[in-house]
Amino acid sequence: MIEHPTPLHPKPTTRLFSLFCLASYLLSMAYGSTFLLSLLMSSHGGNEKNAGTVISAAMVSTFVAVLLSGHLCDRLGAARSVALCGIALVVANLGFAVSASQLQLMMLFGFVLGIGWGVFYTLGPIMVAMMVEPAQRARYFALLSGSMMSGIGSAPLLGRLASQAGLPVTWAFVIAALASLTGVLVFWRLAGVLQKLPDQSGAVASKLTLAGALSVLRSKAVFAIVMVGLGGAIFGGLSSFQTSYAQARSLDYSLFFAGFMGAAITGRMLVAGIVVKRDPYVMSCLLSGLIVVSVLMFKFQVSSSLGYLLAAIVLGIGYGLTYSVINGLAANEAPAGTTTQSLLLFSLSYFIGVFGFPLLAGKVIVEHGLSTMLGILLGVALLNWLITLARLMWRSWVSSDGVTVGERQRP
């Protein structure tokens, strides 16, 4: 039985939020299965370029999903909107399982996937912002993102288990579809309870408006929004073609997903609570630096299973914790009354990176090789890190300049 909130419980109970995280884990498996598309399509005569095209089809639908998710949230409530659109995740994974040799159908199911994932990924953090007061938001964001990362990483591991059991990789897509269906049912069950919680977001509406978007983009929250897009490109580029990377080096791709997932989950669940209490500018700079190190390792250092695992762990720590920090910045640095607007733009930027970059990456891999693609990713990672460094330097300069002016004004 779900424990209902009362006036004495202004935040979600442990049981309620645990069910929320469980449902998020189950739905996230549907997106994690896309990291097996390169393997699936290559087994049917396709290549990385085809897989990138299918993944990029989701970018178009996620734009629509982000724009409409706020309207759905205002009309139906966030949880019911996620449950209804989550059906698209079920359909997409079943479609991938039965149409791997037909590129146009695969693109159609990629488009369908984008609708379900776009609405869920967008409204998930908004539900947290509505449930939790600002002071505790970063911790709950970390719990949500850890649950989602667990689901995302579980699907590729299912593919590896299926191969070891002598089953086709399509079984991973079928299992992901069943898991998503369970998540849909859990979200539908939670909808009534979540709506009774007081709204802590301070927003009068969840839908994205031009005025709200411009207000956010003129604020400091814009830096977190840009960074999540760059981070999404790195994550999407590395994860979507990891099966090809591992095959080229005679490695086991499950090591990447196990190392990355383990580090990201451990970081978000156990360390994020400490990290988010530190200076977010400093932490984002340090953690973004780890992402640069991990890309350097993938490009130049990986030659053994141990090196492969270490590179994945470094990426999991850097990306996993950076995401938690900048998610909090996007919410807390937005102007008053635009928290949900900022989070919608945050999701939109992420989708551009995570779904858009694989289109370029797949083409580069086929025409120029994996090394060139990794070089491009290194440039993206350096740009991401330089943004955090510039923010730190600017704040330090403004702070020191303010102190100097204050000293000159003293009698």
Shape summary:
globular
Radius of gyration: 21 Å
Total domain modules: 1
| Helix proportion | over 70%
Give the low-confidence spans. 5-9, 403-411
| CATH architecture type | Up-down Bundle
Biggest sheet record: none
Q: Under the CATH scheme, which class?
A: Mainly Alpha
Work out the number of β strands: 0
Explain the layout of strands and helices.
Blueprint (H helix, E strand, L loop, with lengths): L13 H19 L4 H6 L5 H29 L1 H21 L4 H29 L5 H28 L5 H26 L14 H8 L3 H20 L1 H7 L4 H23 L4 H22 L3 H28 L6 H30 L1 H39 L3
Helix pairs in contact: 1-5, 1-6, 1-7, 3-4, 3-5, 3-14, 4-5, 4-7, 5-6, 5-14, 6-7, 6-11, 6-13, 9-13, 9-14, 9-15, 11-13, 12-13, 12-15, 13-14, 14-15
What does this structure look like?
The chain has 411 residues and is mostly helical. The chain has one domain (14-396): Growth Hormone, Chain: A (Up-down Bundle). The protein has helices spanning 14-32, 37-42, 48-76, 78-98, 103-131, 137-164, 170-195, 210-217, 221-240, 242-248, 253-275, 280-301, 305-332, 339-368, 370-408. It starts with 13 loop residues before the first helix and ends with a helix.
